[in-house]
Amino acid sequence: MRTSKIGMAVIGAGRVGPNLVRNAMTTSALDLKYLCDRDFSRARKVLGEYSTVVPTADLSQVLADPAVEAVAVATPAATHYTVVMAALEAGKHVLVENPLAASYRTGAELVATAADRGLALMLDHTSCYTPAVTHLRRLVQSGALGDLQFVDSVRSNLGLVQPDIDVLWDLAAHDLSILDSILPLGVYPIAVSAQGSDPIHAGRACVAHLSVQLSNGAMAHAHVNWLSPTEVRTTTLGGSLRAVVWDDLDLSQRLAVYDRGVERSEVDVLDPDTERAARISYRKGDMVAPAVPEGEALRDVMTEFVAAINQRRSPMTDGHAGLRLLAMLEAATESLASNGAFMPVEADLDDPANHSGIAVLVPVGTVR
Amino acid sequence: MRTSKIGMAVIGAGRVGPNLVRNAMTTSALDLKYLCDRDFSRARKVLGEYSTVVPTADLSQVLADPAVEAVAVATPAATHYTVVMAALEAGKHVLVENPLAASYRTGAELVATAADRGLALMLDHTSCYTPAVTHLRRLVQSGALGDLQFVDSVRSNLGLVQPDIDVLWDLAAHDLSILDSILPLGVYPIAVSAQGSDPIHAGRACVAHLSVQLSNGAMAHAHVNWLSPTEVRTTTLGGSLRAVVWDDLDLSQRLAVYDRGVERSEVDVLDPDTERAARISYRKGDMVAPAVPEGEALRDVMTEFVAAINQRRSPMTDGHAGLRLLAMLEAATESLASNGAFMPVEADLDDPANHSGIAVLVPVGTVR
Amino acid sequence: MRTSKIGMAVIGAGRVGPNLVRNAMTTSALDLKYLCDRDFSRARKVLGEYSTVVPTADLSQVLADPAVEAVAVATPAATHYTVVMAALEAGKHVLVENPLAASYRTGAELVATAADRGLALMLDHTSCYTPAVTHLRRLVQSGALGDLQFVDSVRSNLGLVQPDIDVLWDLAAHDLSILDSILPLGVYPIAVSAQGSDPIHAGRACVAHLSVQLSNGAMAHAHVNWLSPTEVRTTTLGGSLRAVVWDDLDLSQRLAVYDRGVERSEVDVLDPDTERAARISYRKGDMVAPAVPEGEALRDVMTEFVAAINQRRSPMTDGHAGLRLLAMLEAATESLASNGAFMPVEADLDDPANHSGIAVLVPVGTVR
Amino acid sequence: MRTSKIGMAVIGAGRVGPNLVRNAMTTSALDLKYLCDRDFSRARKVLGEYSTVVPTADLSQVLADPAVEAVAVATPAATHYTVVMAALEAGKHVLVENPLAASYRTGAELVATAADRGLALMLDHTSCYTPAVTHLRRLVQSGALGDLQFVDSVRSNLGLVQPDIDVLWDLAAHDLSILDSILPLGVYPIAVSAQGSDPIHAGRACVAHLSVQLSNGAMAHAHVNWLSPTEVRTTTLGGSLRAVVWDDLDLSQRLAVYDRGVERSEVDVLDPDTERAARISYRKGDMVAPAVPEGEALRDVMTEFVAAINQRRSPMTDGHAGLRLLAMLEAATESLASNGAFMPVEADLDDPANHSGIAVLVPVGTVR
């Protein structure tokens, strides 16, 4: 394994860029060389007056510099295809903000190009690297929850109405990438329904409800809302053995694992006293709030990016994860246009290699 | 106005019966005479050993007693039509638990019979009489919220899987009756979509999502869930001027009225620094948690029932409110069977008299 | 053991009386005969119009009735000595609201009289019978918490400023009776300090802080406050192995048991990097919220009263528990008058039989 | 007013140093030149690999550099006197972490030296610059709360047991500096009582209760605890007109202003029904959670430091604020050694210029 640092550039100094810069700077295996933005003064301002990192507006110069082996792309979504393709063609490993590209089709081109050239192509699905999601994934995939019965997410905020994408592409993308990352092997999305409304006449859905039909019969639902007076970020996973509530804003208790559940038993007795069916059994046990470490997930994104490059393997959230997400978002957009009808998710999701990011790590080939 | 007490009987000693008994006993204008249940021992047990109220299993005796002027019906839903019709035909005023009847059609017969005979027919939509809903109604109908932008309810619990009805008829019925009771004049439900799942194979939907398209373009959504590890009962109303969150389980702060909102302004400027559209204006002001009195809503149900009888007027949640609820629930059931397609709400909801319980009080005619 | 019911009377129809009536009526081993109050109309009003219990203003008639074997006393505190003594002299078992009497001295007379006559004398320390306190007691006395390091209680509210007692006798009495009921064997109060203030010039302390020095070196503290804008009822118990937070107003999670703690280790190393002493070890593990049943504690008070009578044994919160509480409250009052100086708790608390209500159950002697 | 930047050095790269560095770097009026620490490698590590700031272990070199006009001192408390005095004697403006010095006496020497030389001497009482405390100060000093009735703070955590100071100097120092900063003009601390315990045998108080007698008769109390399983940071201020609860860990609602209170009215009537004194009136109105901006307080500390230097005036938390805090902490230490007896606060607190940091801004004299 190499011991020298990986030369890096961050492209895009907008909303996410400064975070990429900060985390790249504190990742010792990386040597951040450039922050590139079409607007030079914005790049300079992000770096501040005490930095040795070079601000630049010249992307081709960055891509031409052999000292730069990897780039992190945080430009507007519409430019992802062009920037990422240019970087791959220049032989750079790429970490890209979500979404991978504007469409499944163009995204697939990027994945193919990266594979051809043996380059790491990683999606910055930051949420998937939080300690909470790591814990959720372990709970689901270890069988501790039992059979998955439902998933319910709420992500709302008096948020920024985006100029180019609707609330599904902005917010539900997080829920879908998390869902993709924690589903047990063999369970995958089959169809998607989306309903939305635009009560402020912004020109796109500002409030939306997304239902994902899973292959095991369970339903995953996400409510996303730009107009909510309060910030909510919760996900509940119900299982036959346990259920877990993740409240990402409850810093003192982000995860609560309940030894509670409802199950159908064999014998059916109608309780005469309560008029309730006794065919159902209820379990109401203790709740455990596991001690989950705090930590900046973007740090772990950087670490995984470095590891994928050094070990010549696929990162956890690789290009295929990006494609699976695009497939679900495109189905959601179609459904939205069809008054909420369920639309099939057309990606190759029945291929085991595709539907669980960590189950199978596909080597990305030879890195220079 | 009469000054003598109204002789009363409670029919049904199951889940709700004891509450009706207790509240009837503390309503001074009522004189509770009987608690009637097919199972005599259950009626006796509910009354306990210190009560002067008479337990009985003989409904016809109760209905034949001229001292009984009014009955409260809390029998299983499937029997409502028969019991309520018998009571009306015996000339009794009726307070009935939700739902009014098993179908819109049979419910309409009850409404017609009550109207013909000049009898009060009232639905026990208890939630509509809570101080919180009264406050919400005033906020909406006074215009304090501005234009209604969205309604979002969550009602979940490790609840009792009902033997005869699905989670929509059990739980969403509350959200729909509340919605019916607080909508501003001129705004009414147009179509309903429902998606559900039954991951425990109970034979009916245990988790469901209900969307109600409102006539002003806004969407009301309810998530109801019998399998949730935690109990949640929240409703958020978003408006152009204010938004309000009602968390019914937060005893110290049930209502929170936010001076927050998002609105579309006239001029469209794309902020170059943030890449965000500046056509949208955001308001993030204070939150006010109004001092809402605590009180048992069923007490106020009784009081309204007495007032409707004595003043010979329609109660707030009259038979028409019961019909409007049935219309929405029937549309939800149809949608559930159609994979979530929107179904029109077929009731005469464009009749102003029908779509706002308190806007127009229709006299019930001459009471004996 | 007897099988007939125990004839009972409730004396006092004020704040607590109605609860005693309600719970006596639902305790099948009790046969409630009278509700007695100096103000006959108040007793009648509490019973309502449907009760077969007899209201009366004549205490001597009640005490003369041989069908009454036991009384529950809920009259104003100043009258406890007289009413309880009269009941004991009439041969009745007595359940009395806190405090047992106005002073330790007169309380001791009541205890002696009950012992002489072989009658049950029980304090209604309701809090000690809640499922939460029962759980806390088990945690402490089983050693699960390890060595008790501190106890911290807050009991505040925009509460009723009492006309005759200060905030310590009103509110801290609850914390002290709970403390008395959960301390491990061999740990007992040694001295008490109290500081108070009366910023509204009510004539008595409305805000107070109470410190109890325990025999193991730990400190128990209670902050009680009639002027607080919010209601708080929390108790934290810190132990060397675990710590537990009891928030009585958090209905979904009253108890939280933390696998967390701080301990002094043997070797002292000053961490050069953090400038912190490494002689201290920290443990930050999971939190468990045990599934504690909900239930009305006063029900269990009645059950314990019945059991003590029938089994001719001391109840858990017997007269000695009442005396131990009076000893602490009297020391607090003295300290308050001495600007917060610690005052010794003068009761016979080093007698094992006295300082843990449940450790030793002293038979109350022969019941008629 | 000068327009050039102020040359600055941070001294101490321990717990607080990195925050001072980060905030100095983002304050455009400052030009950070050095980070100085006895341990050179620690200084270098804090700066990282991309910084143009110079790490050094040579304090005298820093103080000799004429380009350095101001220093921020974050060395261990025991060294504050020496380092600050050296900086002042070298003609540097000083921002120093709390406490100013190890004793009131040596702190007073520093204040005198700064005054003599016309240099700004500012305490980094960061809490006093948070938007929440700024709001609290305005509420108190504008009269919106009415007469101050009580102050109650809790600051607990499974915190770091400090090697050199007890929990009062570590945690209560924050509460006392906040109290000092928000008290209305004319209200000042008169005496202090402190009780503590050390259940883990750390050699110093780990749990403590501090009472501050205020000149208007009210009591301020702080409970500080290093052994608590949960982190709590709340302060409640009760007033005759309103009360406010500040929960610093409730990010969605840090401040809650209650229109609630208890007041003594003129006429005394004993309510016969409730047995409660009617001489007291209760007000239970709405609660308002003001929209308080979020922001890093240390930024505003830097801004105030710059403004004080440029405008040649006292900063809000000047050396006198540091002395007032030392006076209270020394009284607390004495009380702790006297079993909690109240000790007078001996500072010149009746001088209006001293007891309210913002009321009177004393010019610091001529700056070079």
What does this structure look like?
The structure is a homotetramer of 368-residue chains. With 368 residues, chain A is of the alpha/beta class. The first copy, chain A, has 10 helices and 17 strands. In chain A, strands 16-13-12-11-7-10-9-8-17 form a 9-stranded mixed β-sheet. In chain A, a hairpin with a 7-residue loop joins strand 12 and strand 13 (255-264). In chain A, helix 4 (80-89) runs parallel beside helix 5 (104-117) and helix 5 packs antiparallel against helix 9. The longest helix of chain A is centred in the C-terminal third of the chain and has 19 residues, at 319-337. The radius of gyration of chain A is 22 Å and the shape is globular. The model of chain A is unreliable at 349-368 (pLDDT under 50). The B-C interface holds B 25-26, 32, 48-53, 230-231, 249, 251-252 and C 25-26, 32, 48-53, 230-231, 249, 251-252. Strand 16 (280-289) of chain A pairs antiparallel with strand 16 (280-289) of chain C, so a sheet runs across the interface.
Features:
disordered C terminus, nine-stranded mixed β-sheet, homotetramer, 368 residues
